[in-house]
Fold:
Amino acid sequence: MPVCAALIVAAGRGQRFGGNLPKQYAPLKGERLLRRTLRAFLRHPGIDRVVVAIHPDDAAIFAETIEGMKDVTAVHGGATRQESVQLGLEALAVSNPDLVLIHDGARPRVSLALITRVLDGLKTAEGVLPVVPVIDTLKRIDGTGRVGETVPRDNLVRAQTPQGFRFPQILAAHRAFKGEALTDDAAVLERAGQSVMTVAGDEANIKVTTMEDLATLTATLVETRVGQGYDVHSFGPGDSIMLCGIKVAHTHGMVGHSDADVALHAGTDALLGAFGAGDIGQHFPPSDMKWKGASSDRFLRHAYDLLLERGGSLVHLDFTIICERPKIGPHRGAMVESVARILGVEESRISVKATTTEGLGFTGRQEGLAAQAVATIRL
Structure:
């Protein structure tokens, strides 16, 4: 099997983008664009190594961006994209991979299928370029904005990344034509007189250049889902219980393997269920003694972190606590604040309410309490 590296170009300053951050570090649904991009390549079984060309001033934010990611290294880029790519290729030359895929860090919606198409193309080609058709009519204008002519669209396409190459050829081409201000790496290989074949690109593989691009990309990512959770714990010895991460005085305590926060347990299951990640018992089995007495905010935060890793965001998390005692009303505001703090979201995204069973059932007999939660998310 040929060894393939991915070189992600993320050294630009994004002058057309605006804002306080370079575009590759802009947040998209709670996660930076660059992290989303990297995750796609790290997940692909055909990619053996990932190198990112970054601006020297971005070392700290890059380290934050890749926290928890393995097999990602950085190299300082240059003043132009072409220079940044060459510096990245020179760094890769130490390990001398067979193939390299070069991709824009601000194209976070690169799919595994697109990466595979480029890799498949490299089985027979020296260079592979993903393309999408030109649909709009093209006009050439003069310096005053007046239309000079209509340009035929026949055989015209729009180039995307990742662009794939046999590593020795693209490295040699970059060395030979350094400083020629070529607009992409396929052009560098073309300049060296070598052929570049095309494969089907992906309209969803948007490159973020402006704030409007980010807004467009955000709109394409929306899928609303709902998950529900339910949990029950019985009363036991003690003088307080945990609910929504706060201690509430009561005539009894709660029986449970962790801190028995029935609301946060229901909330954890609601979040996990919304994006199909199982339930709390799969992630934190009660048979594992390391969770004995654990604070349940860890469970809820874990579920939320998984949601963020999958590109999701929380719309709303709604709790209903079912009990006769203690009274929830006096603590509702603190509970909302607690859950919002655990998740790092606005309090307006959290709702806590309570009801009784009018004396019926185990909650009516005050043998324990229950909680329901409904999580609405966007993916």
Observations:
- Residues 262-274 form the longest helix (13 residues).
- The domain at 4-220 is CATH 3.90.550.10 (Spore Coat Polysaccharide Biosynthesis Protein SpsA; Chain A).
